[in-house]
Amino acid sequence: MRSSSQAVVTDIEVIEDFSSTAKCDEGFLRVRRLRCQNRRADGTASKVYRVDVVDRPRLDAVAVLVYRRGASGLEVLTRMNLRPAAYFRRGKEMTVPDGASYLRVEEIVAGLLEPEDKGEQGLRHRAAEEVLEEAGFEVKPEEVQLLGAGFFVAPGILSEKIFPTAVDVTDKQQGTPKGDGSPLEEGTHLQWRPIRELLAMCRRGEVPDAKTEMSILRLLAEQP
Predict the structure, then answer these.
(1) Which terminal residue of the chain has fewer beta carbons within 10 Å of its beta carbon, N or C?
(2) How far, CA to CA in Å, does 69 sit from each of 97, 195, 214?
């Protein structure tokens, strides 16, 4: 197991909630508040209704299932990351209470696509960069396997698509992940899990990350 930091984070404190004074078009996420109408084939239109759309500063992201082949079969590298949005569910009324804190969420390597990342080659390039930064493995873009088309996580509100990929790092030497220096990476640590164990954890809600489960299923579907 490797860790990007030895710090042990026990809580995330809200210093200020400036939601009421912040503009929709500032900050990491941009909220567009729209009034829309449905246009119909017969020329009529629906009543006007409101739509909120959440955009990232970079539209889409790549997810990377980093795996290796061992004596017990395929193993997947995961990261435990601080996830404030999930953590701040605490204290709210839930349809299905689960008692979890979600201070950290276990998931696979991922990162935003940059403007220069164009087409399939761009996906492979960004995947390789994220694997080096977040997992410490140096891989070539051509080693990255595309796992089908990108998918929406919450198309009713999020414009982002996630493009799933995978890369085999069997027998590759792992270095120390550099990370991005963000406070959100304090205490991040990596671990290997057998792929079917990880899939079962996703389905039990122990790893509540959609891109992890989707990527595992797509990789397994391509295995002989």
Answers:
(1) C
(2) 37, 10, 20
pLDDT in tens, 159-218: 999 999 999 999 999 999 988 888 988 889 899 999 999 999 999 999 999 999 999 999
Question: The tokens of 201 are what?
Answer: 């954890």
- Map residue 9 onto helix, strand or coil: coil
From CA 209, how far away is CA 207, in angstroms rounded? 6
Amino acid (1-letter code) at residue 134: E
Domain boundaries, the chain: 58-222
> What's the rounded Cα separation, in Å, for the pair 169 and 67?
6
In this structure, are strands 30-36 and 61-70 parallel, antiparallel, or unpaired? unpaired
Q: Note every long-range contact of 12-18, with CB atoms under 8 Å and residues 24 or more positions apart, other chains counting.
A: 12/82, 12/84, 12/87, 12/88, 12/103, 14/88
- Read off the pLDDT of residues 104-154 as tens digits, 9 standing for 90 and up: 999 999 999 999 999 999 999 999 999 999 999 999 999 999 999 999 999
